[in-house]
Amino acid sequence: MSVPTELGYTAEHEWVSIEDGVATVGITAFAAESLGDIVFVDPPAAGTAVSAGETCGEVESTKSVSDIYSPVDGEVVEVNPDLEGEPESINSDPYGAWLFKVRLSGEPGELLSAEEYTKLTEGED
């Protein structure tokens, strides 16, 4: 399973891409594969304040419901509208089907590199 090197990662299996003070957040291929067929996504609403490491939404699959954790502090400025009608797009394109975008309220915290995230997930297979 490939892990894009240009992204940051959390131990809770979120990925983050930061550009011009806005973080785009999604769940990793490892998480999508572990969850199975994703049938519903409940991301935080636009305007919601989120804190790094805190629960801010849910992803529901045919196997279970998993929390979404924000990897950064800030305010949600956009939610991916495609996920309402096509939540399964996360399974087919986990690094393209982002969940939400956050305008950062400060410097992002410690994120894992692709190499660190790969080492983390090797122990969870």
Protein topology:
Blueprint: E1 8-9, E2 14-19, E3 22-27, H1 29-35, E4 38-42, E5 49-50, E6 55-61, E7 65-69, E8 74-79, H2 82-85, H3 89-92, E9 100-104, H4 114-122
Antiparallel strand pairs: 1-2, 2-3, 3-9, 4-6, 5-8, 6-7, 8-9
Family: Belongs to the GcvH family.
Modified residues (N6-lipoyllysine): 63
Cofactor: (R)-lipoate
Which key phrases capture this entry?
125 residues, alpha+beta, OB fold (Dihydrolipoamide Acetyltransferase, E2P), six-stranded antiparallel beta sheet, three-stranded antiparallel beta sheet, 4 helices, 19% helix, 35% strand
Word description of this protein:
The glycine cleavage system is composed of four proteins: P, T, L and H. The modification N6-lipoyllysine is found at residue 63. Its cofactor is (R)-lipoate. This is Glycine cleavage system H protein. There is one protein chain. The protein is an alpha+beta fold and 125 residues long. It has one domain: OB fold (Dihydrolipoamide Acetyltransferase, E2P), CATH 2.40.50. It has helices spanning 29-35, 82-85, 89-92, 114-122; strands at residues 8-9, 14-19, 22-27, 38-42, 49-50, 55-61, 65-69, 74-79, 100-104. A six-stranded antiparallel sheet has the order 1-2-3-9-8-5. Strands 4-6-7 form a three-stranded antiparallel sheet. Strand 1 (8-9) and strand 2 (14-19) form a beta hairpin. The longest helix has 9 residues, at 114-122. The chain is globular, with a radius of gyration of 13 Å. The model has no long low-confidence stretch (mean pLDDT 94).
